[in-house]
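Ticket reopened. Same input as before:
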Amino acid sequence: MNYQNLTIYNFKISYFLIRIFLPFWLVFLTISYHSVLKSPDILFEPIILTFLHGTPPSVYSFSILAICTGILAIASLFRQSIALNVCLFLLVALLNLFVYSIYKINHINHLLILSLFFGVFLLPRNLKFSDYKKIQFFYLGLLLTYSVSGFWKLAAIFLDLIQKKPEISWMEPGAAKVNTMVNFYLIDRPVPDWMISLYSHETIWIIITMIGIFLQFLSFLGAFNRKYLTFTMIFLILMHLYNYYFVLADFRLTIIVVIILFFPYHLLQPVLKKMGLEPNLTTKK
Amino acid sequence: MNIKSELSNYTKYLVTLSLCLSITSVFLSRYQVAQEIYPFAPWKLFSTPSGGNLTFESLKAYSIKGSDTIKISLNDEDIFKANKRLYAIRYYTSKIESGENTELYNKKLRTLLDEIKSDFNSEKYVLKKEFVHSFRLSDKTYQPESSIYLIIE
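Engineering reply: fixed in the latest deploy. New output:
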């Protein structure tokens, strides 16, 4: 397969897998909502309710909404339509807002929601191989969220170099360590000894941090090169794992979404074909 | 070419729209017109390390029972839950500080702390404001300077 063909091929498989993943995600979300609601009522202040001046929906009505969303997700496997995609995107964004945006708007699940948003018009049955540029935009939109974050880190380092302020930038010794220490301290969590001893190699950490920031900034290039996209996928998984264990940012679900969206399925094509598992991906010439 | 496959050309506009909303969001929150309205491009997330400013202020809660003062730990196995407690304390204290419905938010803060401690027998709670030197945190004996910030009867 050439680049155009495999870009379309990979996107089509991810379209189906995201929709198979969604019902499981919705079950998890409903369970999370249940535990959020268990805390006393007055503590529950999703941002959305401060706008609407309403009361939070009961677990019962939340579940019904989640089940409807799940049905829409399954339906869109069999009947691909823009209207279904729009509903799916709005419902997922809304349900996510109730669970995660408490006290302040949170970035959790941004990749899942954005992939539904950017994919609204991309129906696998209508995609021709010559449409690969649309998929590139789809990838670009998703990867830019990482690139801009890397860009600001580089800009902050640059400013720090020319202004020589006493503040610590990411390039200075101990930056990664102090970041970890502070994030653990804020929630009164003891930092494990193995982590502190890992941080004792200061020069190595400067190199790791700088490589990490550059790769984060360069993520958007994955939209234009398949091999680099696979590399970016691995990098993003490692970055989210590091953030979970060392910075206490819980984006573990995003790892699954990163894999579903960016996995090089074309490498598995011969195996899938042999097993008769290859979905119906016939494409108009 | 039918209409539906024409529409797929609009993907690039969706991406552009998303970027524009992010930029607007950054400027609105920068000039404090509104909170972050569009959260999908975390522009300035961790642009410098936490604690990069060398010192920072942090609120820590204590429960008072007779003559005992016990520190309330926000830690939980579930990281999201622990972080949520931190956001909640910040959110309620900022409401109290701005003088908005002080009584209600005092009550909420008390319920929150009861919940974290899972013990409802405290006489009162004290929030202390700490002035922390980030780089001294790796010293296990380090005790940041603190002063009483709020007493919740």
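The CA atoms of residues 49 and 55 of chain A lie 7 Å apart. The first helix of chain A runs from residue 3 to 38. Please confirm and we'll close it.
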